[in-house]
Amino acid sequence: MSGILYFVPTPIGNLEDMTYRAVNVLKEVDYILCEDTRTSGILLKHFEISKPLKSYHLHNEHQATEKVITDLKNGQNIAIITDAGTPGISDPGYLLAKAGADHHIEMICLPGATAFVPALVVSGLPNNEFLFAGFLPQKKGRQTKLKQLAEEKKTIVLYESPHKINTTLEQIKEFFGEETKVSLSREISKKFEETKRGTIIELIEFSKSKTLKGEIVLIVNNSI
């Protein structure tokens, strides 16, 4: 009988966001796949989890997936975690999920931490229908993607890094319009968690007035 593949969310900032179920699953599996063994090693030590860690990241996931599927078919139970958040959401995990589905492996994804849901809820913007776009392309296809998103008449959810945020906000102004309402959340669940709401012009002024740190979630109101 094949084993079970678990997708286990990890805290995006506050360690108290780790669920009891997540800890128990990680204690019971045969081994754990992770992005960075050093980062995940700290997490596992905190929760007194003693299981082998194996690297699984964007640079080796194609090669590693075949071995993981073989181990699952041989009856091993395996968990995949990322440095923060839910595996497969703008993090490694999709290829493994696809392979698991193709090989009829039982897969269970635990509910847990992910950055965009809290940001969307506190944005005050329409959330009955939204499009999660994750990170925009770095260079090639970036403007094409923004143009496509601007045509979507629903709330848009984006991830962005601090060093690209000013450029991205300027591009939102260009493609979505100067009156577009935006919510910017950063450092979610951490000590300096912050959300700023306003027009894209106001958000540009805010972003340029200070050095923003931490992963940023942008909620863009394009539903009208």
Automatic annotation (TrEMBL):
Keyword terms of this UniProt record: Cytoplasm, Methyltransferase, rRNA processing, S-adenosyl-L-methionine, Transferase
Main location: cytoplasm
Coiled coil (residue ranges): none
The UniProt record lists the keyword S-adenosyl-L-methionine: yes
GO cellular component: cytoplasm
InterPro entries linked to this entry: 4pyrrol_Mease (IPR000878), 4pyrrol_Methylase_sf (IPR035996), 4pyrrole_Mease_sub1 (IPR014777), 4pyrrole_Mease_sub2 (IPR014776), rRNA_ssu_MeTfrase_I (IPR008189)
Subcellular location: Cytoplasm
Annotated EC: 2.1.1.198
The protein's name: Ribosomal RNA small subunit methyltransferase I
Organism from which the protein derives: Chryseobacterium taichungense
GO terms assigned for molecular function: rRNA (cytosine-2'-O-)-methyltransferase activity
Functional summary from the UniProt entry: Catalyzes the 2'-O-methylation of the ribose of cytidine 1402 (C1402) in 16S rRNA.
Recorded family membership: Belongs to the methyltransferase superfamily. RsmI family.
Domain spans labelled Tetrapyrrole methylase: 5-203
UniProt keyword Cytoplasm, yes or no: yes
Reactions the enzyme catalyzes: cytidine(1402) in 16S rRNA + S-adenosyl-L-methionine = 2'-O-methylcytidine(1402) in 16S rRNA + S-adenosyl-L-homocysteine + H(+)
Domain of life: Bacteria
